[in-house]
Amino acid sequence: MKDFAEKRSAFYSGIENYWADLYGEEYSLYDLYDITKEEVHRIRESTNRIGHIFYKTAQLLRTVDDETLLMLGFPRETLSYARMRSLSVESVIARLDLVKAGETFKCMEINSDTPTFIKELHQVNGLVCEAFDRYNPNKGFEKQLAFAVEKAVIESLEYLGDDLIAPHVAFTAHGDNVEDAKTALYLQSLLPLPSAFVPLDQLQIIRHIGLYDGEGNRIHVLYRQTFPVENFIEDEDEDGNPIGLWLLELIEQKKLAVINPPSAFLLQSKAVQAIIWGLHEERSPFFTEEEQGWIGEHFLPTYLEPDRFLQGRTKYVMKPAFGREGDTVKIFDGDGTIAVEDSHNSYAHYLPVYQEYAELPTAKFRTEKGEREGSYMFGSFLVGGKAGAIGIRIGSPITDNLSYFLPVGITKSE
Predict the structure, then answer these.
(1) Could you say which DSSP state residue 343 is in?
(2) What is the per-residue pLDDT for 328?
(3) Residue 5: alpha-carbon gap to chain centroid
(4) Higher model confidence: residue 335 or residue 390?
(5) How many C-beta neighbours within 10 Å does residue 401 have?
(6) Cα separation, 299 vs 308, whole angstroms
(7) Alpha helix positions (H), 93-140
(8) How far is it, in rounded angstroms, from Cα 112 to Cα 149?
C-alpha cells in the first residue's frame, strides 16, 4: 500500500491549486470507474430532461404568491430576490445528484445555486483518465464551462445597464476554506476578462451605494459560487448591521449583479421537487404529455409530509429544504423508524422534505488504506442550461462531506 500511496501523492501533487485531501483524509481517489458510452449518453439525456423540467417550473414559481414560496421553505427576506430574472439562463452552473435505476437515472436533488465538484469533473477527471489510459467522458466540457462563465459575466454587466468604463468583477469565497477558495480561483482562471479574487471577509458594503473590495474599489459583478443565499442573509457585521440583507438590497436595486443569479436560488429548495411531483400526480396541463413522462421516469415521489410513505410502508428519506453534504438527512423504514441518519444536524431549522428512498448502487474502489466498497451516485452538471461533465461521489449510504471523488472513464476497447 505504501507504493500505491506514493503513486497517488506524486500524481495529485502535480495538479496546481487542488485539494486531493480534505479534512485530513483522502478525498480524490487514485482509481477510476469504468463507464460505457451508452451510460454516458443516458446520463446526459436524463440530465437535459430533468433540467428542462426544473427550469420550466422556475417560470411558474416566479408567478406564485408569497405564501406559496414561504410554504416551500424560502426565508421571507429572500422572496423578491428569488423572483428576479437577471440572465438568459436560470442557473449558470447547476449540478444534479443522480442515482442509477435500471436503464435510467433518477434525480435525488438539484444544487442549482452553489454547486461544488466543478474542478474535479472539468479538469482533474481528464488527468486521471490519461493516467489510466481511458477516454475522458468530460472532454471538451471545460470549454463549455469557460464559455458559460464568460457569457454570465457579460450578461450581468449588460443587466446592470451602466456604461461602465472599467467594470470590476470579483470572485469570492471563504478564504480559509480550501475547497471553496480554490473552486472560485479555478472559475476565475477560465474567465478571459479582468477580475480579482476577494475573500468574503474583505468585502465591504455601503448600504444603498455598493459593494467594495478591501482596497475600496466598487464591485459590479460578484461571482459567489460557494456562498449560499440562505447563509449570507443571516450575516451581520461587528456592529450588528444586517450586511447580508444589505447585499440583497444592492442586488434588487441593480447596484450589484451576482452569479449564480437569483433565479438559481429559486430552484434551490428541495421542496420544489414536491411541487413538480404534485403537478405530475394531478396530470396538470402545465406539463406536456412528454414532460409528464420524463417526470415519471426521472423524478422520485416527493412530498412535504411523510403520510404517503407511512400508509404504503415505503422506505423514505427526510432532508432539509436547504442543506448540503448529507447534513441533517435521515433514512426511514416504512414504519417510520430511523434506519440511517447523518451525524450532523446543522439544517434542522429548515422545512423538512420527504422523498421516496432510492437505494444507491455499490462499487469497490482503491484507497491508500486498501480496497473498500461504498455506495455511489453520479454528479451531473447543467452548464448554461445544458448537460455537461459527470463524475461519482462514493462512500456511505448518505453522501456527505467525507465521501470520495471517484473519477470516471470510458474503456478504449469500446
Answers:
(1) S
(2) 86
(3) 30
(4) 390
(5) 18
(6) 16
(7) 118-119, 125-131
(8) 15
286 phi/psi in degrees, rounded to 5: -60, -35
The one-letter code for the residue type at 274 is: A
Q: Rounded CA gap, 327 and 196, in Å?
A: 32
pLDDT digits (tens, 9 = 90+) for 275-300: 999 999 999 999 999 999 999 999 99
Q: At what angle do helices 141-160 and 178-190 cross, to 10 degrees?
A: 80
Q: Which residues make Cβ contacts (< 8 Å) with residue 137, sequence separation at least 6?
A: 35, 40, 125, 390, 408, 409, 410
Amino acid (1-letter code) at residue 386: K
pLDDT classification of 342: cutoffs 50, 70, 90: confident
Per-residue pLDDT band at 141 (split at 50, 70, 90): very high
For residues 73 and 270, give the distance between their C-alpha atoms in angstroms, rounded to a whole number. 9
Q: What is the pLDDT of residue 22?
A: 94
**∠ CA(19), CA(22), CA(24), 5° rounding?**
125
Give the separation between CA 317 and CA 399, rounded to whole angstroms: 13
Q: Length of the chain in residues, anyone?
A: 414
Contacts of 12 (CB under 8 A, 6+ apart): 18, 20, 28, 30
Please determine, for residue 104, whether its predicted confidence score (pLDDT) is greater than 50: yes
Q: How far, CA to CA in Å, does 372 sit from each of 167, 369, 386? A: 50, 9, 34
Three-state DSSP at 286 gives coil
- The average pLDDT across 360-384 equals 96
User: Residue 345: is the preceding peptide bond cis (ω within 30°)?
Assistant: no
The whole-angstrom separation of Cα 227 and Cα 345 is 20
Nearest residue to 141 via CA among 384, 395, 324: 384
Q: Is the pLDDT of residue 57 over 50?
A: yes
With b for 16 or more beta-carbon neighbours within 10 A and e for fewer, the 298-312 pattern comes to: bbbbbbbebeebeee
- DSSP assigned state of 361: P
pTM for this prediction = 0.96
CB 53 within 8 A of CB 299: yes
Model confidence at 398, pLDDT cuts 50, 70, 90, reads confident
